[in-house]
Amino acid sequence: MIALTAREFHLFQAAGRDFLYLVPSAAIFALDAPSAAVIRTISERKRAEEAVVAALADRFDAATIRAAIRELLDVRAIGHEHEPAPEARTSRLLPMMPFPLSTMVLNVTNQCNLACTYCYEYGEDKIVDTEHGRQSKFMSERTAHESVEFLLRESGRIAHLTFFGGETLLNFSVLKSTMAYARRRAAEEGKEIDFSLTTNATLLKPEIIDFLAENHVGVTVSIDGPRELQNKFRVFHNGAGSYDIVAPRIKELLRVHRTRPIGARVTLTSETLDIRRIYRHLTEEIGFWEVGFAPVTTSSNQPYAIGEHGFERLLDQFRALAYEFLEQVAVNRHHGFSNVKDTLEEIHKGVSKAYPCGAGLGLLGVSTDGDVALCHRFAGSDAHRLGDVRSGIDRAAQAAFLERHHIDEKTDCSRCWARPLCSGGCYHEAHVRYGATTRPNLHYCEWIRGWTDTCLRIYGELSERNPQFLERFDRDEAKAEAVL
Ligand code: SF4
Ligand code: SF4
Fold first, then answer.
1. Which of 339, 426, 431, 437 is the pocket-test mutation for ligand 2 (most atoms within 8 Å of CB)?
2. Ligand 1 atom closest to Cα of 449?
3. How many angstroms is it from 11 CA to the middle of ligand 2?
4. How far is the CA of 26 from the centre of ligand 1 (A)?
5. Is the distance from the beta carbon of residue 375 to the nearest atom of ligand 2 less than 6 Å?
6. Which of 37, 68, 226, 424 has the greatest count of CB atoms below 10 A from its CB?
7. Helix or strand or coil: residue 182?
8. Ligand 1 centroid to 89 CA: how many Å?
9. What angle separates helix 308-329 from helix 445-465, to the nearest 10 degrees?
10. Where are the domains of the chain?
């Protein structure tokens, strides 16, 4: 008799029961007791159906076990030995081209009034020489308007325009005129356009805040937490900390700009890993609606790089904050830990990524001179150029990029259960760590798998305790599809 064998899944427990995360389909199943017992029995070692029935005979009758086996075969959690395993949904599928551009990140300047020690634009890890390189320091109004035309040509019905830097607000005049131009041109083209920006908050004057509020601009503030943590790395060129300058400006922004939720984006280093304290400060004392954390992108020899033990600490703290999130949203209260919310949304939608992010696909970065690159972090890099806003996307370069970076090309990831959500991780980080965007970020696999497991457990808990919270991700999707 042909033996039954376990396929590719991750088994986890939540709300007192077992769940399966099926890797090829990125689907989740709650298991009843017989199915869980069958899965465990077959995972120990492959066995014929009769042997499974015999092994579990003291707990379940034969008909129940056979029914559980049929169900598990149907969802392909188990299979018959020698039969080919199911292919991943992403396998060998290259996106349909031309792929519509959804988000354009416009680097309106590559200059900054801060000199954050860890900054990828200015430190030793920089890709583009923003001091002596050929790119202009500030984007001209003409290039910005040409970029808008490019976005409207390449986008679907909805286009997202994100302003970025350097410090974005150093080129506020171009930002302002570009928004007016983009709004007018989008209306003429029958498209919707949405605006957002990232800022270090140092230049948030009252008139700028009023403009952002009146124009419904989504704002993300880069900030690292309370005074001593912010001032460790986020300093002016003379070394002075920026906390006392930015804190009152951010409070004013939050007071005046009520039309869209404003988020904080925290860069974590080995010296600033106090996540719960940072979260409390930014939400309770400053007043942010949401806080997202990202480990610093740097080569491993920098003193502030997060090492193995740092990632363990990071995971412990992320977990603790994620369970706080769970307890709040389980009773329909807001919690602003955006990392967990974003991952829950991906899990709920069954995301199975062929690529780690939209860079080079639905998201492109534009340099100050109008060169198009993978994303904002590569904007201005000749080696990562994918055309320019005047002549359009270099489709051959884009196709070659997508071919070389597909998850199927990352053999190290091929047996990893977390690959539907990770897909090898950020290209920029891979470039900085390993010198090649094609390499998976193997230095943080344990952290990624630990974090994905945590989010799956939270998902399982919420599916029992407050499924309506998860269903709102469907409503968001339905809304998005209705306007596409
Ligand atoms: S980088 Fe690591 S965690 Fe991510 S998919 Fe590859 S092996 Fe898995
Ligand atoms: S490559 Fe990295 S920085 Fe660029 S969009 Fe992707 S995740 Fe973000």
1. 426
2. 3
3. 29
4. 15
5. yes
6. 424
7. helix
8. 17
9. 10
10. 3-89, 101-396
Buried b / exposed e across 419-429, counting CB within 10 Å, b at 16+? bbbbbbbbbbb
Hunting for tokens 């005979």 — which residue is that? 57
Query: How far is the centre of ligand 1, averaged over its atoms, from the C-alpha of 270 (Å)?
Result: 21
Q: What is the pLDDT of residue 477?
A: 53
Mean pLDDT over residues 312-319, rounded?
95
> Using alpha carbons only, what angle is made at residue 401 by residues 396 and 405, rounded to the nearest 5 degrees?
150
Contacts of 327 by beta carbon, 8 Å cutoff, 6+ apart: none
pLDDT tens for 43-73 read 999 999 999 999 999 999 999 999 999 999 9
Instruction: Report pTM.
Output: 0.93
Name every residue whose Cβ is closer than 8 Å to that of residue 205 and which is 6 or more positions away in sequence.
249
Q: Which two tokens stand for residue 13?
A: 């427990």
φ and ψ at 370, to 5 degrees?
Answer: 95, 10
Q: How far is the CA of 186 from the centre of ligand 2 (A)?
A: 26
Looking at all shown ligands, the one closest to residue 90's CA atom is: 1
**pLDDT value at 404 more than 60:** yes
Architecture per CATH, domain 101-396, reads as: Alpha-Beta Barrel (3.20)
* DSSP reduced 3-state for 186: helix
For atom 7 of ligand 2, which residue has the closest CA?
426
- Ligand 1: list residues with CB < 6 Å: 412-413, 416, 418-419, 422-425, 440-442, 445, 448-449
User: Which two structure tokens, joined as six digits, stand for 396?
Assistant: 């051959």
Tokens of 253: 């922004």
Q: Which helix (DSSP H) or strand (DSSP E) does residue 73 occupy?
A: helix 62-74
pLDDT tens digits for range 339-382: 999 999 999 999 999 999 999 999 999 999 999 999 999 999 99
Q: Where are the beta strands (DSSP E) in 181-245?
A: 192-199, 218-222
Helix (H) or strand (E) holding 79: strand 78-80
- Domain 3-89 -> CATH class: alpha beta
Question: Ligand 2 within 6 A of 428 CB?
Answer: yes
